[in-house]
């Protein structure tokens, strides 16, 4: 289909309250049909979820997941607006699924790209700018390529940008918005910690044969 106009995306956003990227995706899914895009967002629970984002989410649950073999463990805090929703089966299932997602994504370090410190983005920019394949390219082109690569890299570090492990047609962000739309509350993934058995421990390797030989000298 032809490139979506900013005016059409804005119109859908004004009608539904959904985010810009969600509106673009909806319009692409239905070949630019505004009415169908609105229905698509409603089916996904996105439009109603976006309207609740500004509301305070101070309740919720800390969930955990231990992967088979007990070598990877996760703690995650997911917030909602009321204790009633927090204790419900739908919300608790979301918490479990998000915890499993974190366990399955060892490279993820932050909840969203908004949480990534500027120094991390600057470091990635420096790395990309120094790559050999950019050496002979014009500066303007080089800057654009670096920007695209850094944006891609930052998404790889963000939990909400990952394809959902149980349905790769959804991102984790879209999953959370769907549940928020279903439950009628603002739901936010606040923070998480991932533990890998033995991570950070330096194991000293010894040459047993050499030690035995030394003892016999």
Automatic annotation (TrEMBL):
Entries under Pfam families matching the protein: EF-Ts_N, EF_TS
Matching InterPro entries: EF-Ts_dimer_sf, Transl_elong_EFTs/EF1B, Transl_elong_EFTs/EF1B_dimer, Transl_elong_Ts_CS, UBA-like_sf
One cellular component term from this protein's GO annotations in UniProt: cytoplasm
Location of the protein in the cell: Cytoplasm
Family, per entry: Belongs to the EF-Ts family.
HAMAP family with a match to the protein in the record: EF_Ts
NCBIfam families recorded: tsf
Name listed for the protein in its UniProt record: Elongation factor Ts
Taxonomic source organism: Synechococcus lacustris str. Tous
Taxonomy of the source species: Bacteria, Bacillati, Cyanobacteriota, Cyanophyceae, Synechococcales
Annotated gene: tsf
């Amino acid at each position: 289909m032809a490139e979506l106009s900013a005016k059409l995306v804005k119109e859908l956003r004004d009608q539904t309250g959904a985010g810009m990227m969600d509106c673009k995706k909806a319009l692409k899914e239905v070949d630019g049909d505004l009415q169908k895009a609105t229905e698509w967002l409603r089916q996904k629970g996105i439009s109603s979820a976006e309207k609740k984002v500004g509301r305070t989410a101070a309740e919720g649950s800390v969930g955990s997941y231990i992967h088979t073999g007990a070598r990877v463990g996760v703690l995650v805090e997911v917030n909602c607006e009321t204790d009633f929703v927090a204790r419900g089966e739908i919300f608790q299932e979301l918490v479990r699924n998000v915890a499993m997602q974190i366990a399955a994504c060892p490279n993820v370090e932050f909840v969203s790209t908004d949480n990534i410190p500027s120094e991390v983005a600057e470091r990635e920019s420096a790395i990309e700018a120094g790559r050999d394949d950019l050496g002979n390219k014009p500066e303007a082109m080089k800057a654009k390529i670096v920007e695209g690569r850094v944006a891609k890299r930052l998404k790889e570090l963000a939990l909400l940008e990952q394809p959902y492990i149980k349905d790769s047609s959804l991102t984790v962000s879209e999953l959370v918005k769907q549940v928020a739309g279903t439950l009628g509350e603002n739901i936010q993934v606040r923070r998480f910690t991932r533990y890998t058995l033995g991570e950070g421990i330096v194991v000293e390797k010894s040459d047993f044969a050499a030690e035995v030989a030394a003892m016999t000298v």
